[in-house]
TrEMBL record:
<keyword id="KW-1003">Cell membrane</keyword>
<keyword id="KW-0472">Membrane</keyword>
<feature type="transmembrane region" description="Helical">
    <location>
        <begin position="169"/>
        <end position="191"/>
    </location>
</feature>
<keyword id="KW-1133">Transmembrane helix</keyword>
<feature type="transmembrane region" description="Helical">
    <location>
        <begin position="144"/>
        <end position="163"/>
    </location>
</feature>
<dbReference type="Pfam" id="PF04279">
    <property type="entry name" value="IspA"/>
</dbReference>
<feature type="transmembrane region" description="Helical">
    <location>
        <begin position="103"/>
        <end position="123"/>
    </location>
</feature>
<protein>
    <recommendedName>
        <fullName>Inner membrane-spanning protein YciB</fullName>
    </recommendedName>
</protein>
<comment type="function">
    <text>Plays a role in cell envelope biogenesis, maintenance of cell envelope integrity and membrane homeostasis.</text>
</comment>
<keyword id="KW-0812">Transmembrane</keyword>
<dbReference type="InterPro" id="IPR006008">
    <property type="entry name" value="YciB"/>
</dbReference>
<feature type="transmembrane region" description="Helical">
    <location>
        <begin position="42"/>
        <end position="66"/>
    </location>
</feature>
<keyword id="KW-0997">Cell inner membrane</keyword>
<feature type="transmembrane region" description="Helical">
    <location>
        <begin position="12"/>
        <end position="30"/>
    </location>
</feature>
<comment type="similarity">
    <text>Belongs to the YciB family.</text>
</comment>
<feature type="transmembrane region" description="Helical">
    <location>
        <begin position="73"/>
        <end position="91"/>
    </location>
</feature>
Amino acid sequence: MSEAREINPMLRAGLEYGPVLAFLVAYLWLKDNTYTFGGTEYDGFIVVTAMFVPLLVLSTGALWALTGKLSRMQVATVVLVVIFGGLSVWLNDDRFFKMKPTLIYVLFGGLLAVGLLRGQSYLKYVMEEMMPLRDEGWMLLTKRLMFFFFGLALANELIWRFFSTDTWVYFKTFGLTAAIFVFFMAQGKLFEAYGEKKDQS
């Protein structure tokens, strides 16, 4: 396996978050329009989804080419975006794309749950280099993150089913990102209590 390569943090952020911001901008621009392709009418949301899918694939491919590494979460996200974004465009039905975050978070929460049932923290395998913790800390953080993912899945279901598409787009663009940031910021005491200090020698 080739080693991961470091790239400019701004470039990484652009490749990771650029497609999502582009989706928001394009949606706000095209949401009230209807377009006809091949005799079929598509609303702005479907057209933006059709543009977002290849953009995400290209940006993720560029990130992989530049760094030599992708996380399992990134790979799973791209696969589900292609499947459910493609279904939304093909069937001209935005519900498939809106369900995608639900399935992503159920998948991640389910994987963490399987690890916990086996007495393991799968989160540790992914994030150990970023956050050195004792085993008890990893198990506790994994349990909290599992419930958090299931909570996000439930929130996404409630919002796309009972609120407007505008509300769902803002929730997906800003709400989910902010929720994940707040979750990890709230784990400060856990990191202090279970963190492993690196040798200074």
